[in-house]
What we know:
The chain is α+β, with helices and mostly antiparallel strands and 210 residues long. Helices cover 52% and strands 8% of the residues. The chain has nine helices and four strands. The two termini are 33 Å apart. It binds glutathione.
Amino acid sequence: MNPTKITFYMAPMSSATPVDSALRELDVPHETVRLDLKAGDQKKPEFLALNPNGKVPTMVIDGAPMHEALAIMHFLGDRFGVEKGLWPRAGTADHRTATSWSTWAYVTLPPMLMLFNVAGGPRSPAALHHPPLVDFALAELRQRFGALEAHLADRPFILGESYSLADLIVGSSLLWAQVCGAPISEFPRVQALTQRVGDRPAVRDAWQAT
Length: 210
Ligand SMILES: N[C@@H](CCC(=O)N[C@@H](CS)C(=O)NCC(=O)O)C(=O)O
């Protein structure tokens, strides 16, 4: 296969950080372009031409732009992860499990985390605080973490006995949930997965990169 030319548009400590972790874990050659979000680099016309949402992460792959962290990480898994044994081949049952749980981490979990943060988080304005909504979000989060706890009942990782990009994707959301104060510690297997992912050098280095 020809080398794939990748340009990664990112900002430190952002939605681009899990993608940065994935690039490090898979050792993918790429060029990095760091955006200054406070200065508004993401709203400049030349960047909006790549991603009309004006957000990071954005990736240009062989000249074609792509956005959304989850989609980008699925691409990285399919293109680079299979040959490294870190992502299952498309069409297999493991690939369906990997995409199910990674989509869960980016689609099913975040709305309740957002509600939990907005309705009671320390960085949310007091005018938006609403304790009954915090209780609702907590109950929903407990149900969702409970589902992952059940999946992990007989395996330490999303796909079984070994680490994969699916763990990195799910674990990145769990690490964020932990920072937000979500009740992960009530779920020992979820907590253990979060810890294992947080201990990966690729994940640690990406979160520490400034
Ligand atoms: N759903 C998007 C979220 C991207 C996102 O919200 N990125 C933020 C950084 S965490 C951003 O670029 N914000 C800049 C802005 O909104 O102006 C993804 O997962 O890629």
